[in-house]
Amino acid sequence: MPNSKSLFLGVLTGGLIGASVSLLTTPSSGSDMRLRVKEQSERLREITQELKENGIDLKDQLTQTSKEGAELLKDLSQDIKTSVESWKSTVEPHQENLQEHLRQIEEGIKELEEKMKEQNANQT
């Protein structure tokens, strides 16, 4: 670990010294350098402002989308509820008829079973 820490500090120190030397030995004058730094800082402010505005727009869009989604879900759930109630009212009158038919079918099956038992008993 001590070797990697020393290496890191050496690279960091060397980088700082190199950057300082580059700035001091640059062929542009001090006024040119200040002008470039000023332009870069203005550009950075503009980019930051654009990001801020884009973030606000995105937040507004997400808010609007979530409101619309909530309304759509509410409408959809109401439509589903209405459809289920309509289906129930359509099926309910026929439900009693279906149950009656099932009872008749069960009685018919029981009668057939009894007749088959009687026939089997008569044949033996």
TrEMBL record:
Keyword match Coiled coil: yes
InterPro entries named in the record: ACT_dom, Desiccation-related_membrane, YtxH
Coiled-coil annotated residue ranges, if any: 95-122
Cross-referenced Gene3D superfamilies: Apolipoprotein
Domain ACT: 32-117
A matching Pfam family: YtxH
UniProt keywords, alphabetically: Coiled coil
Top-level lineage group: Bacteria
PANTHER family: GENERAL STRESS PROTEIN, IG HYPOTHETICAL 17707
Annotated protein name in UniProt: Gas vesicle protein
Organism of derivation: Alkalibacillus salilacus
Lineage of origin: Bacteria, Bacillati, Bacillota, Bacilli, Bacillales
